[in-house]
């Protein structure tokens, strides 16, 4: 089983940037495709971005294309999400997760002026 822990997040103004990081530990952690999903208040969760085991991004939700960048460093057991040109609708609880259901505790991102 893999353990995941998010860091980063916080409050940003519209047009600003934030970076999220996810540390992984546990067995076979380098073998997973992983990603970030988010859950806005009162809404369903949605996958934001997914990255393959080799570091190739495989998915971005349309609303973040061109603004968010996912990456991973398997040598450091880390995954990242760089979020630029943030919009109020990006406000959500962001989770680091594997595709087979493991996830972290989440980190809050709030975009507000």
**H/E element order:** EEEEEEEEEE
Distance between the termini: 40 Å
Outline type: globular
Total helices: the number is 0
Count of extended strands: 10
Q: What structural category arises from helix and sheet content?
A: mainly beta
Q: What is the mean pLDDT?
A: 93
Beta-strand content estimate: over 45%
Strand order of the largest sheet: 2-10-9-4-5-6
Relative helix content = under 10%
> What does the largest sheet look like?
6 strands, mixed
Low-confidence stretches: none
What does the radius of gyration come to? Answer: 13 Å
Topology:
Blueprint lengths: L1 E7 L1 E3 L5 E9 L7 E6 L6 E6 L5 E4 L7 E6 L4 E6 L8 E7 L8 E5 L2
Parallel strand pairs: 2-10
Antiparallel strand pairs: 1-3, 3-8, 4-5, 4-9, 5-6, 7-8, 9-10
Descriptive account of the structure:
The chain is mainly β and 113 residues long. It is 0% helix and 52% strand. It has a 6-stranded mixed beta sheet, with no helix packed on it. The chain has a 4-stranded antiparallel beta sheet with strand order 1-3-8-7, with no helix packed on it. It is globular and about 40 Å long. The mean pLDDT is 93.
Short description:
The protein has 113 residues and is mainly beta. It has strands at 2-8, 10-12, 18-26, 34-39, 46-51, 57-60, 68-73, 78-83, 92-98, 107-111.
Question: Which short descriptors sum up this protein?
Answer:
113 residues; mainly beta; six-stranded mixed beta sheet; four-stranded antiparallel beta sheet; 52% strand
């Amino acid at each position: 089983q893999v353990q995941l822990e998010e860091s980063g997040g916080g409050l940003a103004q519209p047009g600003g940037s934030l970076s999220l990081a996810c540390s992984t530990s546990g067995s076979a952690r380098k073998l997973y495709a992983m990603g970030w999903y988010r859950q806005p208040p009162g809404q369903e969760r949605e996958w934001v971005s997914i990255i393959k085991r080799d570091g190739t991004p495989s998915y971005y939700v349309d609303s973040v294309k061109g603004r968010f960048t996912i990456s991973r460093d398997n040598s450091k057991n880390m995954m990242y999400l760089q979020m630029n040109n943030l919009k109020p609708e990006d406000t959500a609880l962001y989770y680091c997760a594997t595709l087979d259901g493991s996830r972290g505790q989440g980190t809050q991102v709030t975009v507000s002026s």
